[in-house]
Amino acid sequence: MLGICRGRRKFLAASLTILFVPAITWIYLFAGSFEDGKPVSLSPLESQPHSPRYTASSQRERESLEVRVREVEEENRVLRKQLSLVQSRGPAHHRGNHSKTYSMEEGTGDSESLRAGIVAGNSSECGQQPVVEKCETIHVAIVCAGYNASRDVVTLVKSVLFHRRNPLHFHLIADAIAKQILATLFQTWMVPAVRIDFYDADELKSEVSWIPNKHYSGIYGLMKLVLTKTLPSNLERVIVLDTDITFATDIAELWAVFHKFKGQQVLGLVENQSDWYLGNLWKNHRPWPALGRGYNTGVILLLLDKLRKMKWEQMWRLTAERELMSMLSTSLADQDIFNAVIKQNPFLVYQLPCFWNVQLSDHTRSEQCYRDVSDLKVIHWNSPKKLRVKNKHVEFFRNLYLTFLEYDGNLLRRELFGCPSEADVNSENLQKQLSELDEDDLCYEFRRERFTVHRTHLYFLHYEYEPASDNTDVTLVAQLSMDRLQMLEAICKHWEGPISLALYLSDAEAQQFLRYAQGSEVLMSRHNVGYHIVYKEGQFYPVNLLRNVAMKHISTPYMFLSDIDFLPMYGLYEYLRKSVIQLDLANTKKALIVPAFETLRYRLSFPKSKAELLSMLDMGTLFTFRYHVWTKGHAPTNFAKWRTATTPYRVEWEADFEPYVVVRKDCPEYDRRFVGFGWNKVAHIMELDAQEYEFTVLPNAYMIHMPHAPSFDITKFRSNKQYRICLKTLKEEFQQDMSRHYGFAALKYLTAENNS
Q1: 127-to-4, 14, 130, 351 alpha-carbon distances in Å
Q2: CB within 8 Å of 643: residues ≥ 6 apart
Q3: pLDDT block averages, 10 residues each, the chain of length 756
Q4: Parallel, antiparallel, or unpaired for β 703-705 and 623-624?
């Protein structure tokens, strides 16, 4: 800023020099050309030696003056050159300085300037400009409700975190769904110097439910009106953002604009960039009253302390009641009411430069707001069409949005050096656990994975299911990665009940999955499938963590612990619900076994009955699962007995037993130390046995494993000797932990292992 001011002083001095020095010089010369009140010619042709006025003294004086004239002309030429350089460098220098110090663009609170469409965004003052202190906390408020809005918030937050250099405090006005999703997400994201507070949006409904609203945002689109009541009374200022916002700069630059507010200005807004409030979009179009083009409320700067003193709550309510008598409802939710208030009280608003809210609606005039990429600060997808909106620069904006949409959120876990952060118990515990590990241990990476916190986004797609009232409902639980997506439709066709899936994906893969699911009629017709994204981190597939995530987020009393490569028999869902009652699973510790089979054929005529399955077994079309590579895994099921069984029968636990079971939702979790391939299910079944679960085989249930390429983890297990050594070490440690936890009864696991 100091450089800008110095440049302007040089510019002014140069201008004055060019204007006044020649004038003074020529006045001096002109005056010197008179002698005795008569003009003296400086022309050599008129000043001949034989002239009586000609003397040696006057000749020297004239020569001296001519030299001085040439010097002045040369100085003027140099000054003009310097002046042109200052002019050409000035704007670029301004932009560079602006980005370094967060100096504020000039807006205006003048309603006349607004009506004239004036945005003085590139002017600046030579006085000291306010800046945001290095460790000053920036407060951001967002209203968020539902599954889709929760996804949008993540992209917005990513764009803010990417550019930010200050601590952030997000105030999220969320419904129960969004709170569950975002609380888990931020807890597992563990971004330093970021604080999250939630406010119950459902409790605020009564404050605005009396306002009829036609906007697609529904009742939640009105809740920005009550932020003065909702947010803490000691919070003085806040930036309010819509969920469909993308930042292209540091949010601290916007926070700095608060220092520009003067007088009674309490709202910072950008002019609306469409003709909506002019009322000329179609015949009989009748918008709410607004000042000129009105203002867009996708980005708002609120001076909360002053708004409270002005009795904002009473102000907007009275305005809304008056206008609703003739308008009947709002078309643009809170934006209509904000504009009606401003129409009556124009002194409240400070107009932000338009690049703080570049609006991409169908009728936008936003291209008048920017000349090149450096002018863009905030992009607002304020059309119901979102990324499909019509705009001549939409490809550029879409690519900017997709950059953050698919950006690896783990890379945003950056420390803000020099800024003290609040103590995070989870982070401190994690660091303590990791510090206790020996980095020279050859199995260090395996042990470390047990403590890795994976960013988790619950209910990535819309989920809606009420469990059956008879308390017999069963949820199918499974986990998968990107290479198993093709199994989803088939499983949904075989299992009509609720499903809980944990997907291990990168940020980019999560978006590929979203597009895949949205393009599938089968998946989109099912609202009882919960998709929980666990984001990739580390070198191992955290199979048991994924299972635990899927198990934890079921709403039914029972769950069927399956794998994504298996197709359950048609009608298994209803059969299991009947078995739950028949075997009194609610009051007994039972694990109901669903016998597992496999086919080597990619195209299979799926058996519709047990009799048909037995026929295919005899023909060699089907086999008992893994009979040729891992017989011990399912041998205790006793397939020979199952062939003729008509009633459930009990089997005993044996070493390496890993059946697929139906259990109550309160069963123990899977042990996280087992990652990748090997012993992940075996350890869980062992713990069920240690807790005295009774294993009961269902006589008329079955599931079939479909063929697929070997996973990356099983390839590592087969090819890497150290992998196998570490797995053996972890298995021994697990058995020792079982002995310590369950005492004498757990000794059989060590004995069985030694005999196997």
Answers
A1: 10, 21, 10, 21
A2: 614
A3: 48 49 44 43 39 50 60 60 48 38 43 38 43 92 92 95 96 96 96 95 92 85 94 97 94 96 96 82 80 93 96 94 89 92 95 90 71 78 64 76 93 87 71 75 84 94 91 97 94 97 97 96 96 94 96 97 96 97 95 95 90 94 87 93 96 94 96 87 94 96 87 73 87 87 78 59
A4: unpaired
Q: How far apart (Å, rounded) are the C-alpha atoms in residues 382 and 400?
A: 16
* Residue 517 exposure: Cα atoms within 13 Å on the Cβ side: 22
Cα 552 to Cα 477: distance, rounded to the nearest angstrom: 10
Tell whether the torsion through CA atoms of 646, 649, 651 and 656 is positive or negative.
positive
Do the Cβ atoms of 702 and 562 come closer than 8 Å?
Answer: no
| CA proximity to 404, closest of 141, 138, 154 | 154
534 pairs with which residues across the strands? 456, 504
Show the tokens assigned to 178: 């969004």
Length of the chain equals: 756
| Closest by Cα among 547, 194, 611 to 186 | 194
Q: Are 360 and 379 in contact (CB under 8 A)?
A: yes
Please tell me the pTM assigned to this model.
0.80
**Which pairs with CB-CB distance under 8 Å and at least 24 residues apart come from 752-755?**
752/654, 752/655, 753/655, 755/655
Report how far residue 616's alpha carbon sits from residue 595's, in angstroms, rounded to the nearest whole number: 15
C-alpha distances out from residue 620 to 215, 486, 615, 639, Å? 61, 26, 9, 15
710: left (phi over 0), alpha (psi -120 to 50) or beta: beta
